[in-house]
C-alpha cells in the first residue's frame, strides 16, 4: 500500500495556561513545553519535586477515573488530563512535557478550545522522526451492562457516539478527525453535569471548581446555563472530546472506526486496556494516501 510518513510534532515554544482544577478546586497552572522525539506526553508535578507521570493507560487510576481521567505513577497523581490529551490529538502533537503546579489540570472554560488556541499561537514544529500511529486490526465489541463500544479498522479516526441520560437527554453525533473539524465541531464543547448530582459530588470532594462558566449544568427543566452553550447537542460532542483524549492514552494516536453508547472515562480506558491486552492495535508508520486521510491533512497543519 502506498502511503506517506507523518513526522512527529511538538510545540515551537512553551505555553502557560492557568486557572483552577475542576474537581479539587485548587489553583492550577500548566506550563507546557516542547519535547524531543519519542517523549510522548509526560506530566511533571512541580510541587512534588518533579515527579513524572506518563500519559499512558497503564497509569490510569481506575478507582478514581469516573468523572475525569486520573493518572498515577511514581507516587504522583494527575487529575483531569483528558481535555489536554484531546487537544493534542486534534492537533497531532506527539511530544510535550506538561509541568503542573498541583494535582490537577486547569479546567479553563471546560472545553479543549483554550488548549487549541494556545498551541496554535505557540506554533507547532515537525520533528525528525516518523510519528507512531496505532491502527485497529480487526472488529471488536466491548460491552458492559448498557455501555458499548464497537470498533473496526479504518484508515482514519471516526466515531459515532450516543448518550441517553434518563431517557431525557438523548443525543448522538458522528465525527471524523480532520484538522478543521476538531477545532470547529468538538473543541468548543464544554464538560457537563446534572444539577441533582452537584451537592453529592461536592460532598464527596469533587466538582469543587465547577461553575456555570466551565460546565453545562442540566436540571429538571433542561439546561440551567444556556448562555455557556455553543452547540445544541454539546453534551454528546463533549463525550467525543473526552473519548479522543482517553484514547490518546494508547501512547500514540489511534485510527479506527468506533461506535460508542453511553460511555464514560472509566469505560473508555477499560476498552483501551482491552485493545492493548488482546493485541487489537498494531503500529503502522505509513498513512494511506488513497483517500481524505485525517493524518494526511495534518501534514499541512500548523
Ligand atoms: Zn470532559
UniProtKB/TrEMBL annotation:
InterPro entries: Ribosomal_Su5_D2-typ_SF, UDP-acyl_GlcNac_deAcase, UDP-acyl_GlcNac_deAcase_C, UDP-acyl_N-AcGlcN_deAcase_N. Its EC number is 3.5.1.108. GO terms for biological process: lipid A biosynthetic process. Its cofactor is Zn(2+). It catalyses: a UDP-3-O-[(3R)-3-hydroxyacyl]-N-acetyl-alpha-D-glucosamine + H2O = a UDP-3-O-[(3R)-3-hydroxyacyl]-alpha-D-glucosamine + acetate. It is an enzyme of class 3 (hydrolase). Zn(2+) binds at residues 83, 238, 242. The keyword Lipid biosynthesis applies. Pfam families: LpxC. One of its GO terms (cellular component) is membrane. The active site is at residue 265. Keywords: Hydrolase, Lipid A biosynthesis, Lipid biosynthesis, Lipid metabolism, Metal-binding, Zinc. GO terms for molecular function: metal ion binding; UDP-3-O-acyl-N-acetylglucosamine deacetylase activity. Pathway: Glycolipid biosynthesis; lipid IV(A) biosynthesis; lipid IV(A) from (3R)-3-hydroxytetradecanoyl-[acyl-carrier-protein] and UDP-N-acetyl-alpha-D-glucosamine: step 2/6. It comes from the Bacteria. Catalyzes the hydrolysis of UDP-3-O-myristoyl-N-acetylglucosamine to form UDP-3-O-myristoylglucosamine and acetate, the committed step in lipid A biosynthesis. Belongs to the LpxC family. This is UDP-3-O-acyl-N-acetylglucosamine deacetylase. The lineage of its organism: Bacteria, Pseudomonadati, Nitrospirota, Nitrospiria, Nitrospirales.
Amino acid at each position: 500500500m502506498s502511503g506517506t510518513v507523518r513526522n512527529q510534532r511538538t510545540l515551537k515554544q512553551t505555553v502557560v495556561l492557568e486557572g483552577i482544577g475542576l474537581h479539587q478546586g485548587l489553583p492550577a497552572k500548566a506550563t507546557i513545553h516542547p519535547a524531543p522525539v519519542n517523549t510522548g506526553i509526560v506530566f511533571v508535578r512541580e510541587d512534588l519535586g518533579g515527579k513524572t507521570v506518563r500519559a499512558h493507560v497503564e497509569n490510569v487510576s481506575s478507582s478514581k477515573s469516573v468523572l475525569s481521567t486520573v493518572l498515577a505513577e511514581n507516587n504522583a497523581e494527575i487529575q483531569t488530563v483528558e481535555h489536554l490529551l484531546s487537544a493534542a490529538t486534534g492537533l497531532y502533537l506527539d511530544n510535550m512535557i506538561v509541568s503542573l503546579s498541583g494535582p490537577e489540570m486547569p479546567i479553563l472554560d471546560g472545553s479543549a478550545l483554550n488548549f487549541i488556541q494556545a498551541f496554535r499561537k505557540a506554533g507547532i514544529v515537525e520533528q525528525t522522526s516518523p510519528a507512531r500511529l496505532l491502527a485497529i486490526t480487526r472488529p471488536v465489541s466491548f460491552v458492559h451492562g448498557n455501555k458499548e463500544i464497537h470498533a473496526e479498522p479504518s484508515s482514519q479516526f471516526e466515531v459515532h457516539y450516543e448518550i441517553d441520560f434518563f431517557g431525557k437527554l438523548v443525543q448522538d453525533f458522528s465525527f471524523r478527525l480532520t484538522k478543521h473539524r476538531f477545532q470547529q465541531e468538538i473543541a468548543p464543547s464544554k464538560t457537563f453535569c446534572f444539577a441533582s448530582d452537584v451537592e453529592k459530588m461536592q460532598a464527596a470532594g469533587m466538582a469543587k471548581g465547577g461553575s456555570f462558566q466551565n460546565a453545562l449544568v442540566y436540571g429538571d427543566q433542561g439546561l440551567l446555563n444556556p448562555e455557556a452553550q455553543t452547540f445544541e447537542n454539546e453534551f454528546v460532542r463533549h463525550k467525543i472530546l473526552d473519548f479522543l483524549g482517553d484514547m490518546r492514552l494508547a501512547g500514540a494516536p489511534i485510527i479506527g472506526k468506533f461506535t460508542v453508547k453511553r460511555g464514560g472515562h472509566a469505560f473508555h480506558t477499560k476498552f483501551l486496556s482491552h485493545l492493548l491486552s488482546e493485541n487489537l492495535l498494531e503500529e503502522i508508520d505509513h498513512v494511506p494516501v488513497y483517500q481524505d486521510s485525517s493524518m494526511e491533512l495534518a501534514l499541512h497543519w500548523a
